[in-house]
Amino acid sequence: MKIKADFDLCESNGVCVGMAPDVFDLDDDDYLVILESDVPEDRREEMRQVVGSCPKSALSIED
Question: Count of CB atoms within 10 A of residue 50's CB?
Fold first, then answer.
């Protein structure tokens, strides 16, 4: 399972960072960085919640 971001939509609100700081971060310029794009299958439900919480719908899960 991979996490993807549409950086044209992302406003770096940081909701995802707060929910999964081991997967997402903001760099020094406040741009989203995906630290772990390959997320273990046992975290699927957690990642669905993170993706669903993105205020700009910039995140997605790819199988």
Answer: 22
Collapsed DSSP state (helix, strand, coil) of residue 19:
helix
pLDDT of the residue at 53 = 98
What pLDDT digit, counting tens, does each position of 42-57 carry? Answer: 999 999 999 999 999 9
23 alpha-carbon distance from chain centroid? 7
The CA distance from 40 to 57, in Å, is 22
Measured CA to CA, the distance from residue 38 to residue 53 in angstroms comes to: 19
Distance of CA 8 to the CA centre of its chain: 14
Cα angle: 37, vertex 43, 44; to 5 degrees: 85
* CATH code for the part of the protein at 1-60: 3.30.70.20
